[in-house]
Write a structure and sequence with these properties.
By secondary structure, this protein is mainly alpha-helical. It has a single domain, classed as Amino acid/polyamine transporter I (Up-down Bundle). The protein contains 15 helices and 6 strands. The protein has a two-stranded antiparallel sheet. A hairpin with a 2-residue loop joins strand 3 and strand 4. It is globular, with a radius of gyration of 23 Å. It is found in: Cell membrane; Endomembrane system. This is Amino acid transporter transmembrane domain-containing protein. It is a multi-pass membrane protein.
């Protein structure tokens, strides 16, 4: 008998495995007995070697699997819009803003790592999800607010990744079309068929039961992310070398510049673009919404927060170097004409085969990234449904399905139906709003302050019992309020971009 999904975990009672049939507690923070540090670090003294100190199947994640999850979540489609973002801000503000976002994300992620176990980071009870951590440390209405923001953001990320993948699929066909016609054919086409193709792929991969089983897909996706980032960087360096100069200006795009998306006529539109660029950079670093879920896959000893801090520091440092190089060389190559998507905006045309490889890598990466971001949402809905209908076989029963070359797959009908419906809905919404840069900006603005800054800061203050109005408390509050202002500014700019796009948009008929 295969182990049950982590969605419906087993418990241990006096050395025996006890299947829980009353699963109402799964939406709650599970109350666990207080254990000593030695018991937390060495749970085998009280539990089977197959189970952790909380009675769940032993976690097997390592520094490298956590790093692959983070890189898969961080180096996403956002990296491709960084050249455009820096073009709006200029050589002075662009790299500075990019570096500041990296520092803030690294700092607040370390605060959030400490909240995986409530009370004490080594011996406290585990929080399996971001919402569990908020409930254990803050409680009250903030739990509902966190859940609303987190899961809406996860839905938004799924939509954004569907749009980005379809653009990359089209770019493959367009680059070959452009090559065959010698540049005479504009090669316009609709994105709808490519979004549907991506949706079908995600329907299949969405049947992976939980986060613990997605590790191999994350490793493949992380490799792909480095592949296309390196190609983008290489093409940017080559373009700069061919130009014999660094394009761009200290203050960013000039008023009156004719761009791929229209003419910048007034200082107001330049302001909107600069504000939208903040959202694009924020989106490029957005992974806090799945940080706790990633940390819940890590084995101990050593203590989970130690491994997670190392993985976070390594991942954010590595991705920031890539971001700086890709964004800056993309801007240096094209200046004010930097495309919204470096590899699909046709700033580059040749070598077309290398562009094809890069865009294939983007699609493969987004298949994995979609799962990394959506697994927490899948688990939440399935736990809630199991609480609501605990006696329904449709919701809780699992059926063994033998699959050649794989083994036995445990099929749950509710998981099959609801995850399929979710992918269909996100695909339809993507077809209605296929605006890559604007959607990226809105997602970054919407999720940055509450999930990356506010909740980690507030939970850390509560956990460490930092005295109100102390210098440390004031410093954390100033950080939080500053990031709130940035999120609001980015949201306004991104919404303004969507409004402009809607003036020329026809539902389901957008072509590139």
């Amino acid at each position: 008998m295969l182990p049950r999904s982590r969605t419906l975990p087993s418990r241990i009672h006096h050395g025996a495995i006890e299947e829980r049939h009353d699963i109402r507690h799964y939406l709650q923070v599970e109350v666990q007995p207080k254990v000593s540090e030695s018991e937390a670090i060495n749970p085998q003294s009280n539990y089977s070697k197959c189970f952790d100190d909380d009675g769940r199947l032993k976690r097997t994640g390592t520094f490298w699997t956590a790093t692959s999850h983070i890189i898969t979540a961080v180096i996403g489609s956002g990296v491709l819009s960084l050249a455009w973002a820096i073009a709006q801000l200029g050589w002075v503000a662009g790299p500075i803003v990019l570096a500041l976002f990296a520092i803030v994300n690294l700092y607040t992620s370390n605060l959030l790592c400490m909240c995986y176990r409530a009370g004490d980071p080594v011996t406290g009870q585990r929080n399996y999800t971001y919402m569990d951590a908020v409930k254990a440390n803050l409680g009250g209405k903030k739990v509902m607010l966190c859940g609303l923001v987190q899961y809406l953001n996860l839905v938004g990320v799924a939509i954004g990744y569907t749009i980005a993948s379809s653009v990359s699929m089209m770019a493959i066909k367009r680059s070959n079309c452009y090559h065959k016609s010698g540049g005479k054919d504009p090669c316009h086409m609709s994105s709808n068929g490519y979004m549907i193709t991506f949706g079908i792929i995600e329907v299949v991969f969405s049947q992976i039961k939980d986060f613990n089983e997605v590790w191999w897909l994350s490793i493949v996706a992380a490799i792909m992310s480095f592949t296309y980032s390196t190609v983008g960087l290489g093409l940017g360096i080559g373009k700069v070398a061919g130009n014999g100069e660094f394009k761009g200006s200290l203050l960013g795009i000039s008023i009156g510049t004719v761009t791929h998306s229209g003419t910048v006529v007034t200082s107001t539109e330049k302001m909107w673009r600069s504000m939208q660029a903040l959202g694009a950079i924020a989106f490029a670093y957005s992974y806090s919404i799945v940080l706790i879920e990633i940390q819940d896959t890590i084995r101990c000893p050593p203590a989970e927060h130690k491994t997670m801090k190392k993985a976070t520091a390594f991942s954010v440092t590595l991705t920031t170097v890539f971001y700086m190089l890709c964004g800056c060389f993309g801007y240096a190559a094209f200046g004010d004409l930097a495309p919204g998507n470096l590899l699909t905006g046709f700033g580059f045309y040749n070598p077309y085969w290398l562009l094809d490889i890069a865009n294939v890598a983007i699609v493969v990466h987004l298949v994995g990234a979609f799962q990394v971001f959506c697994q927490p949402l899948f688990a939440f809905i399935e736990k809630w449904s199991a609480q609501k209908w605990p006696k329904s076989d449709f919701v809780t029963a699992e059926y063994d399905i033998p699959i050649p070359f794989y083994g036995v797959y445990q099929l749950n009908l509710f998981r099959l139906v609801w995850r399929t419906i979710f992918v269909i809905l996100t695909t339809l919404i993507s077809m209605l709003l296929p605006f890559f840069n604007d959607v990226v900006g809105i997602l970054g603005a919407f999720g940055f302050w509450p999930l990356t800054v506010f909740f980690p800061v507030e939970m850390y203050i509560a956990q460490q019992k930092i005295e109100r109005w102390s210098s440390r408390w004031l410093g954390l509050q100033i950080l939080s309020m500053s990031c709130l202002v940035i999120s609001l500014v980015a949201a306004v700019g991104s919404v303004a971009g969507v409004v402009l796009d809607l003036k020329t948009y026809k539902p389901f008929k957008t072509s590139y």
